[in-house]
């Protein structure tokens, strides 16, 4: 035992005792990453029916905001149907409204990207300028798939706040009749 103590100082022995289990644990790490790579390489496990497309294009902050990306004071964007007009003129009119696909909404999206994703006219549009002179739009939806107050600065979504949504009135039931 004295021979071992003289050849390896106590500090190095302690460090070796701490590091050895960590190094030994790293041996199995490469096995997990290879299995993960194989799993993700097979598109059939990730996407159904061979559809590997993503509906939303990647968000690029470098894309300049154009006038076509800005909502008007009446809540309309270029290319959107006029208020009261059917959202999809080709939809069948079997007595049911057409089902609107729900598109994602994320910080950085433009005003019209969000308005098109929500697919209904906003309840309120407030346009102003901040202290730096940037356009600020506060657009509020109190109904629909994503009710909320959406704040845009320079045409891009910067904040989303929850709004209180009135609950629909419950139908009043008539009094129950007694059986004779």
Topology:
Layout: H1 2-7, H2 10-25, H3 29-41, H4 43-46, H5 111-118, E1 124-129, E2 135-141, E3 148-153, E4 156-161
Antiparallel strand pairs: 1-2, 2-3, 3-4
Care to describe what's here?
With 180 residues, this protein is an alpha+beta fold. The chain has five helices and four strands; from the N terminus they run αααααββββ. The chain is extended and about 95 Å long. The termini are far apart. A four-stranded antiparallel sheet has the order 1-2-3-4, with no helix packed on it. Among the domains are: 43 residues; 73 residues, no CATH class. Helix content is 26%, strand content 14%.
Question: Could you list some keywords that capture this structure?
Answer:
180 residues, four-stranded antiparallel β-sheet, alpha+beta, 4 strands, single chain
Write a concise synopsis of the structure shown.
The protein is of the alpha+beta class. The protein has helices at residues 2-7, 10-25, 29-41, 43-46, 111-118; strands at 124-129, 135-141, 148-153, 156-161.
